[in-house]
Amino acid sequence: MNIRPNLPKDFPKIVCLCGSTRFSDAFKEANLRETIAGNIVLSIGCDTKSDKDLMILGELTEEAKEKLDQLHKRKIDLADEILVLNVGGYVGDSTASEIRYAVVNNKEIRYIEPLTNKAQHCSICGWTNNNLLNLGRNNTPKMVCQGCCRRAVEELDSIKSMLLTARS
């Protein structure tokens, strides 16, 4: 979903923060930095504890967590880009899923920390995994997870191919 065409030209950029809820300070800092930069910031609903801690305490069920994950993806739908809070290089499963979702929906992606070793990180979601596939072309490596990111790349390649064929 892209709402940008329906907004005035001078409308601020909309940034959705993505990352583990255990990094509440990183969410607060990024929210402040992006707001001062003149961006509209969409963030997590609460930052009291990690999802895992809340589940252990019985305060968050799997069903409720899935609803929160889907709600965050709706925020990504509204955003122009996502800012991944990969503190210490950490990208968990939920964040990786959000990154893949952003890729499939053509959102820009920024990280607060650089991906240090491209051979060990998925070039799409940043997830650290030793079981990556190289889908690069023309001597340009593109290491991706074997799950959703591989499928996302293949789907985007297929769409690009169809568009090029249609233009011919």
Spell out the key features of this protein.
single chain, 168 residues, alpha/beta, Rossmann fold, four-stranded parallel beta sheet, two-stranded antiparallel sheet, globular
Structural account:
- The protein is an alpha/beta fold.
- The protein folds into 2 domains: 1-114, Rossmann fold (3-Layer(aba) Sandwich); 116-168, no CATH class.
- Helices cover 40% and strands 14% of the residues.
- The protein has 5 helices and 6 strands.
- The protein has helices spanning 24-36, 51-56, 62-78, 93-104, 148-167, and strands at residues 14-19, 40-42, 81-85, 108-111, 132-134, 143-145.
- The strands form 2 sheets. The protein has a 4-stranded parallel beta sheet with strand order 2-1-3-4, with helices on both faces. A two-stranded antiparallel ribbon has the order 5-6.
- Helix 4 links the parallel strand 3 and strand 4.
- Helix 4 packs parallel to helix 5 (148-167).
- The longest helix is centred in the last third of the chain and has 20 residues, at 148-167.
- The protein starts with 13 loop residues before the first strand and ends with a helix.
SSE order and pairing:
Blueprint: E1 14-19, H1 24-36, E2 40-42, H2 51-56, H3 62-78, E3 81-85, H4 93-104, E4 108-111, E5 132-134, E6 143-145, H5 148-167
Parallel strand pairs: 1-2, 1-3, 3-4
Antiparallel strand pairs: 5-6
Helix pairs in contact: 3-4, 4-5
Shape: globular
On the 0 to 100 scale, the average pLDDT is 79
Helix content: 40-55%
**Helix-strand makeup class:** alpha/beta
Number of domains: 2
> What order do the SSEs take from the amino end to the carboxyl end, as H and E?
EHEHHEHEEEH
Instruction: Just name the CATH architecture of the largest domain.
Output: 3-Layer(aba) Sandwich
Question: Which topology of the largest domain does CATH recognise?
Answer: Rossmann fold
Characterize the largest beta sheet: strand count, sense, and whether it forms a barrel: 4 strands, parallel
Number of helices: 5
Order of strands, main sheet, comes to 2-1-3-4
User: Which runs of at least 5 residues are low in confidence (pLDDT < 50)?
Assistant: none
Rg over CA atoms, rounded to whole Å, is: 17 Å
> What's the CATH first level of the largest domain?
Alpha Beta
Percentage of residues in DSSP E strands = 5-15%
Measure the end-to-end span: 27 Å
Number of strands: 6
